[in-house]
Amino acid sequence: MRTLRAIINGVDCLSEWTGKAASWVVLAMVLAVSYNVFMRYALNAPTIWSFDLNYMLGGSMMALGQAFVYKHKGHVRIDVISMHFPWKTKVIIDIVFTALLFLPVFFMVSKVYWGDFVHSVVIKETMQQSAWYPLAWPFKLMLATGFSFFFLQGIANFIKDVAQLITGSERL
Amino acid sequence: MIELSPQLVTVIMFGSLLVLLISGYPMAVLLIGIGMGVGLLLFGSSVFEMFRLRSYSILASFIFMAVPLFVFMGTMVEKSGVAEKLYGTLYLWMGGFRGGLAVGTIILGTILAACVGVIAASVVTMGLLAMPSMLKRGYDKSLASGAICAGGSLGILIPPSIMLIIYGPTASISVGKLFMSAFPAGFVLSGLYIAYLAIRCFIQRDVAPPIPPEERAVPLSKKLIMIPTSLLPPLVLILAVLGTIFFGVASPTEAAGVGALASILLAAGYRRLNLPVLKDVVLTTMRTTCMVVLIGLGAVVFTGVFALAGGVEVVSAAIMAAPFGRWGSFAMIMLIVFILGMFIDWIGIIFVIVPMVTPIGTALGFDPLWFAMMIIVNLQMSFITPPFAYAIFFLKGIAQPEWELTTRDIIRGIIPYVGLIVVGLGLCIIFPQILLWLPAQMIR
Questions:
Q1: Closest-approach residue (CA) in chain A for B388
Q2: Do B291 and A75 meet the contact criterion of CB atoms below 8 Å apart?
Q3: Which of B25, B28, B69, B78 can pair with B256 through a Cys bridge, CB separation 3.0 to 4.6 Å?
Q4: ipTM score for this prediction
Q5: Contact B69, B161 (CB under 8 A)
Q6: Do residue A82 and residue B387 have CB atoms under 8 angstroms apart?
Q7: DSSP states of B112-161 as a string?
Q8: Nearest CA of chain B to the CA of A107: how many Å?
Q9: What SS3 class is residue A135?
Q10: Cα(B243)–Cα(B241) distance, rounded to whole angstroms?
Q11: Cα A149 to Cα A15: distance, rounded to the nearest angstrom
């Protein structure tokens, strides 16, 4: 029981901190885009890196934030009917769907994204969307990490739900 | 791997989606799960690589990055206090007329809509501002909540709008053109709402009484100075963002970045900018963005598998077979979007349905931009049609106990607007120039 609690706390903490850290990325995007627009129109000297940097930052945030959002149950649920279910039914639904859909799906998603990361490192892949040609692996590392943390949060939520079902209370 | 007829795949995928959605499990995970499950059965493990390629094209897309930037801008505008100033002005100038506060709410919604790209920001802001003052003046609860929900929902139609940013790449239409087309569409709806409120309050004397003169006794000079001080800052923001897109100076993503920076300056100007606010805004931005993008990732594998299995042909054959020629097919598409809008999230509708119906619209000989805008205006109804209606959820979420506001009150107030949006759609069919004139003037 103690190990489980430690795992859950560890994962919750990880999701909380990566999420909060990743949320500041949007500010960096704002500044990077504005800087480039200023350089292009005021000084006629556009930056070469702005285009790639923008989607790399944004894409990283979109992947790294998933675990945080899942921890806080922020994903859209069509719950007009299910909100009237008794709490036990809701918990059982979550347990079953997490075990049958979420965990296998995001295990495979993490796996293919890690595979792609390794591939990028090996062939020294560069991004081909602009004239900057930055290395691709740092961005792919962020994506793979984000999906892996999302998967871990899925495990943590699963354990929490099972514990809630057994003990009948939210606390573990 | 097994062989299934496209008809059977269509029934299995959409049937299981609709059934499983009832469970209340996150829609995005259901989309990915069904997509991958069916894909694994039909095409084997190549479905995982397909997911990676298709999801990567969203995560590494420059245009899609306008979503977080516009969400940031909208959330910052919400915190900046612009809306309070605007409503204060509208209150004094319009409160004296019967129904003036309700009409003022729609005007506020229209102006805010041009600053924000999501409806959460506008419905919540307007609900907190306008609802207490309308109730205090004895406005009918349904009338007041209807105006807030409908006016607030304009937030996602009038650009900047994250709906248009998602729609553009999904249907291969320029986001800039969608922006310019959505502007007049939003004004048409806003005008219809105002006309409805004015006429209704003129006929029914007691639903929206005027504010007594002594409660708005402010010197004219002060009332006059309020107009520029409250209106100018948001107007500058709107022009900075939309002007750059219209004149071809910047892409939507760049305009969003500049707008986001401007919103920070705006909040600083109103002395509302501090670290807690900034923390709150970046976190809200990330939550909204992650929520939207995961549905997108789910939908690309769902629609990808569906298309590979031949399901798109099944759906388009069914729609093409509708009676009364191409307008019959068009009506059928609009009806499908309307019904789906009652039950599921608009993000899912765009990501799943738009890739399917867009080629049908083109095959039927409709202008792609006009066709896209008709679906977008139609989706305005999805925010206010129960049971799944974001505007109702948001207003209910902020309702204070002393308002004694029930969901039934809100729904009663909102139904007339569904009719008004249908009238708006009719106008766009009779006068397609409403949607097509402004984009044609754009400087490329």
A1: A80
A2: yes
A3: B69
A4: 0.93
A5: no
A6: no
A7: HHTT-SSHHHHHHHHHHHHHHHHHHTT--HHHHHHHHHHHHHGGGTSSS-
A8: 11
A9: strand
A10: 6
A11: 7
